[in-house]
Amino acid sequence: MHAWESLARERSKHNTKNLVLWSIVRTHLKENILIGFYALLRTIAVSLSPLIIYAFVKYSNGKDKDLKEGLFIVGFVIVSKVVDSVFQRHWFFDSRRSGLKMRSALMVAVYRKQLKLSSSARRRHSTGEIVNYIVVDAYRMGEFPWWFHMTWTSTLLLVLSIGVLFGVVGVGALPGLVPLVICGLMNVPFAKILQNCIAKFMISQDDRLRSTTEILNSMKIIKLQSWEEKFKNLVENLRAEDSVNAVEIQDGNFTWDHESLSLILRDVNLEIKWGQKIAVCGPVGAGKSSLLYAILGEIPRISGTVNVNGTIAYVSQTSWIQSGTVQDNILFGKPMDKTRYENAIKVCALDKDINDFSHGDLTEIGQRGINMSGGQKQRIQLARAVYNDADIYLLDDPFSAVDAHTAAILFNDCVMTALRDKTVILVTHQVEFLSEVDTILVMEGGKVTQSGNYENLLTAGTAFEQLVSAHKETISDEGEISTEGQLGVQLTQEEEKEIGDVGWKTFWDYISFSRGALMLCWIILAQSVFIVLQTGSMFWLALAIEVPKLSSATLIGVYSLISFGGTAFALLRSIFGAKLGLKASTTFFTSFTTAIFNAPMLFFDSTPVGRILTRASSDLSILDFDIPLAITFAASIPLEIVLVICIMAAMTWQVLIVAVPAMVASKYFQGYYQVSARELIRISGTTKAPVMNFASETSLGVVTVRAFNMADRFFKNYLKLVDTDATLFLHSNVAMEWLVLRIEALQNLTVITATLLLVLVPQGYVSSGLAALSLSYAFSLTGAQVFWTRWYCNLLNYLISVERIKQFINIPAEPPAIVEDNRPPSSWPSKGRIDLQALEIRYRPNAPLVLKGITCTFKEGSRVGVVGRTGSGKSTLISALFRLVEPASGDIVIDGINICSMGLKDLRMKLSIIPQEPTLFKGSIRTNLDPLGLYSDDDIWKVNELAPQLM
């Protein structure tokens, strides 16, 4: 990795074109030269096969057979087969290992790049796109070494074969080169078409994964608004101590987009001294949060200077919490200091919450803090900042998610006491705290319009006075939005992993699920006919060439007819295979996305996004391409093997004495391998999701990671995840090469036996043409057996992806979206009266009750405030109204109708909610206001009149 980075830096100074490619080439050049040497030796060994057959034919046609000459041919067969087998195994294993290094390096490089990516660049590259680079593109690049060496060796083998042909036949080989050249030229346009298709596919896959990531991270709001169908369709269609000032900004102008003339912040001049408490206030959209981003270096600076002297701790407006325990999130990679830790918990008012958790500070936090209230998440990240013991604290509206009493505790105990010697820049709307700070910055339109202490600004009688007056006229009683009842339990479920044999049931599940039984039969039939015709064409040549009266035209005509027939059936096999793959992939993907969108909210609370994305990318990709191809070859190659053995036995039946035991032994080794391989594949399936999840999680909180100077720690943790994933991949390939080496040895023994028997048979016992045909097919036996073994084992391994997809397809679904017999009137709810009758709610069947027999009435037209301490059930009550969680007992009646009797879509489309954490989707403001496209532009502009700052 260090070598890679030094090469990348060196080259980037001169030229950035093809930077990644040249970094890969120079870093892995030496090992690939060695791999190329192995591939070269293997290619030479394979190209000698026609010469061996030619020598054997001459030996067979000789009047006086010299046994020594025959035994020399056998010895040559032994040497060529050993060289072929040993060096091919080195080639295949080392190229896979080199590819694994490339893949891991690319994954790490992309992750490190995202840690350094500027805010403007992050606006152009979504989290889903970055994750896609890691889990799709980097994985594909891991195949590069194998395919590279396969490409040039195939070309070399073709050239050597033509050379041998000319050496044996002479100028007579020229006519045979014509169709070869034509086929080669025809590959060029088809290759370009394929390249364009793959490029379009990769772009489409990027869009689909980005949308999937966005939707999974916003599933709660999608369910609350009953937008599942709309978004389902979208997926389917795609710090120095000697400095006077802690922070200094002079003539600062900032913008998100260098190409835009629109400035986010303009003419900013700040001098913040050590230990000062600075409050930043102003209306929505004034640029308060952007000012903090400018200090963090997250907004591109157009002009001016920014000097920050000291370490920074940052608390974002939207809470960013990692998967892990409460303790992990507060320590944030720092060593445990018990006194400092307990003080951070106390001043952030978390002590009572932690005491209420059944596992205390070791309570697990779900992904994105899904099982924590908004106030708890905000206080945890505030405690993280306090424990970090930084010099400068940037607090972006940290009191917005807590009630007034808790906000006062946090301001007095945390900001003014615990951080009394620290520099604090506090963005806040709570003007009641402004009289306590040293300086107040009032912002409007991206500029600092006023600066001074509370009394001076208030006397000035300007915008600040209006801000304070407006606050006094507003009764602010913001409660916490919490997900009570879920804490203290293991929220994130361990990834489900099957054990034991995959079994043919999974295979038939794949076939029956896609209704592809008939297509499978056509595939097997077409491939079988192709093999029979291919063998028949060779038999025709071997037999007809010894018939003197047969004209050349007849010989070539019949051979061409049989060959074209074989080609036609090979084409049909490919078409049927593609249709089966497309049909199965479409069926599985539709069922998968339907199951995900119909899953209850608890599923998303307990399942990391990375785990779902792994199923939606890697596993579905295997269903798209790999399984149909594996089925085709695994089902038809056995016929080729049987035909080869029959041909060999027809010449010398004694070969069965070795061939049959070799086949039995091969089956034993295959079964022995499969026991270990399938578990390696299953475990490997569980190591990829954490890589995706960690990358996605880091992308969402990268500003916080950089602010706390924790990029190196996150990078090291990511390296561990990548190493774990790579280890499983390496072991899987080692196991496969172990198996193939033994299969080759056994089948090579059969080939050597067949050659020896053909050498020892008396002259005239078998015609030289048939003997040469038998030897030719004997040479193909090892390749056919290895080919079938690899594809058969791969098929069984690929079927594990079917298992994993079916696990998600079988997720228990929410109640139906529409219940035809119980649809509410179109005018419902006309009044808005809500009656709760002995309502009891629990999140899991055996979990304790969160709401315990609540009976009350919310009268129509009334404004009702629901208050209570954290964990009292406020948020659960909201969830129950939207049926995100079903009542254990009791009823919820709205305007005389029990909401549990109707469909979820009918209910949720009639209710509306303003969530505490805002959610925006990629697209225009209009599509975010009206995702379903139900309203006209006039309706949208009428809404804008109610919220004029929106547009």
TrEMBL record:
<dbReference type="InterPro" id="IPR036640">
    <property type="entry name" value="ABC1_TM_sf"/>
</dbReference>
<dbReference type="InterPro" id="IPR027417">
    <property type="entry name" value="P-loop_NTPase"/>
</dbReference>
<dbReference type="InterPro" id="IPR044726">
    <property type="entry name" value="ABCC_6TM_D2"/>
</dbReference>
<dbReference type="GO" id="GO:0005524">
    <property type="term" value="F:ATP binding"/>
</dbReference>
<dbReference type="GO" id="GO:0008559">
    <property type="term" value="F:ABC-type xenobiotic transporter activity"/>
</dbReference>
<feature type="transmembrane region" description="Helical">
    <location>
        <begin position="584"/>
        <end position="604"/>
    </location>
</feature>
<feature type="transmembrane region" description="Helical">
    <location>
        <begin position="553"/>
        <end position="572"/>
    </location>
</feature>
<keyword id="KW-0812">Transmembrane</keyword>
<feature type="transmembrane region" description="Helical">
    <location>
        <begin position="745"/>
        <end position="765"/>
    </location>
</feature>
<feature type="transmembrane region" description="Helical">
    <location>
        <begin position="517"/>
        <end position="541"/>
    </location>
</feature>
<keyword id="KW-0677">Repeat</keyword>
<dbReference type="InterPro" id="IPR011527">
    <property type="entry name" value="ABC1_TM_dom"/>
</dbReference>
<feature type="domain" description="ABC transporter">
    <location>
        <begin position="247"/>
        <end position="470"/>
    </location>
</feature>
<feature type="transmembrane region" description="Helical">
    <location>
        <begin position="33"/>
        <end position="57"/>
    </location>
</feature>
<keyword id="KW-1278">Translocase</keyword>
<feature type="transmembrane region" description="Helical">
    <location>
        <begin position="641"/>
        <end position="664"/>
    </location>
</feature>
<comment type="similarity">
    <text>Belongs to the ABC transporter superfamily. ABCC family. Conjugate transporter (TC 3.A.1.208) subfamily.</text>
</comment>
<feature type="transmembrane region" description="Helical">
    <location>
        <begin position="69"/>
        <end position="87"/>
    </location>
</feature>
<keyword id="KW-1133">Transmembrane helix</keyword>
<feature type="transmembrane region" description="Helical">
    <location>
        <begin position="150"/>
        <end position="171"/>
    </location>
</feature>
<dbReference type="InterPro" id="IPR003593">
    <property type="entry name" value="AAA+_ATPase"/>
</dbReference>
<feature type="transmembrane region" description="Helical">
    <location>
        <begin position="777"/>
        <end position="800"/>
    </location>
</feature>
<protein>
    <recommendedName>
        <fullName>ABC-type xenobiotic transporter</fullName>
        <ecNumber>7.6.2.2</ecNumber>
    </recommendedName>
</protein>
<keyword id="KW-0472">Membrane</keyword>
<dbReference type="InterPro" id="IPR044746">
    <property type="entry name" value="ABCC_6TM_D1"/>
</dbReference>
<dbReference type="InterPro" id="IPR050173">
    <property type="entry name" value="ABC_transporter_C-like"/>
</dbReference>
<dbReference type="Pfam" id="PF00664">
    <property type="entry name" value="ABC_membrane"/>
</dbReference>
<keyword id="KW-0547">Nucleotide-binding</keyword>
<feature type="domain" description="ABC transmembrane type-1">
    <location>
        <begin position="522"/>
        <end position="784"/>
    </location>
</feature>
<dbReference type="GO" id="GO:0016020">
    <property type="term" value="C:membrane"/>
</dbReference>
<dbReference type="Pfam" id="PF00005">
    <property type="entry name" value="ABC_tran"/>
</dbReference>
<dbReference type="GO" id="GO:0016887">
    <property type="term" value="F:ATP hydrolysis activity"/>
</dbReference>
<keyword id="KW-0067">ATP-binding</keyword>
<dbReference type="InterPro" id="IPR003439">
    <property type="entry name" value="ABC_transporter-like_ATP-bd"/>
</dbReference>
<dbReference type="InterPro" id="IPR017871">
    <property type="entry name" value="ABC_transporter-like_CS"/>
</dbReference>
<keyword id="KW-0813">Transport</keyword>
<feature type="domain" description="ABC transmembrane type-1">
    <location>
        <begin position="33"/>
        <end position="241"/>
    </location>
</feature>
